[in-house]
Amino acid sequence: PEFWVKYRLEHQANLAGDPAISRLVDQCADRIHHFFSDEESIVPSCLHGDLWSGNINSVVNGDGQISPTIFDPACYYGHHEAEWGMSWCASLG
Fold first, then answer.
1. How far apart are the C-alpha atoms of 16 and 46, rounded to whole Å?
2. Exposed e or buried b for every residue in 56-90, given b needs 16+ CB within 10 A?
3. pTM of the predicted model, to two decimals?
4. How far is Cα 1 from Cα 24, in angstroms, rounded to an integer?
5. What is the dihedral of CA 48, 50, 52, 55, to 10 degrees?
6. Which positions are catalytic?
7. How many C-beta neighbours within 10 Å does residue 23 have?
8. Contact 82, 51 (CB under 8 A)
9. Which residues contact 7 (CB under 8 A, 6 or more apart)?
10. Nearest-angstrom CA–CA distance, 56 and 81
11. For residue 63, what pLDDT is reported?
12. What does pLDDT average to over the chain?
């Protein structure tokens, strides 16, 4: 949770430049641990950071076979379920 507070929530609040948003993030930061269970073991997964239909293509392999390819310059490690939400936002799911 500390990573998400510092590098996601606080970073986005700083980019917004709005003191009201920063205050809301501070309030959330104090309680964010309630959203994470000690019983749930989350292993970070490599996620697609910029999922949209323009990042899907095909390539010809060395043996002449065509294979579907997903490429992304913005991948990151995070919760495995985040990818489902992004696929919905990109109208892929």
1. 27
2. eeeeeeeeeeeeeeeeeeeeeebeeeebeebeeeb
3. 0.46
4. 16
5. -80
6. 50
7. 11
8. no
9. none
10. 20
11. 92
12. 83
Cα 74 from chain centroid (whole Å): 10
The two three-digit tokens of residue 68, written as one number: 């579907």
**Amino acid at the residue 36:** F
Q: Average pLDDT across each block of 10 residues of the chain; the chain has 93 residues. List them in order.
A: 83 93 90 75 81 83 90 82 72 59
Q: CB–CB of 55/48 below 8 Å?
A: yes
Write out the DSSP string of the chain.
-HHHIIIIIHHHHHHHT-HHHHHHHHHHHTTGGGGS-SS--PPPEEE-SS-SGGGEEEEE-TTS-EEEEE--S--EEE-TTHHHHHHHHTT--
Q: What per-residue confidence (pLDDT) applies to 74?
A: 81
d(CA 79, CA 74): 15
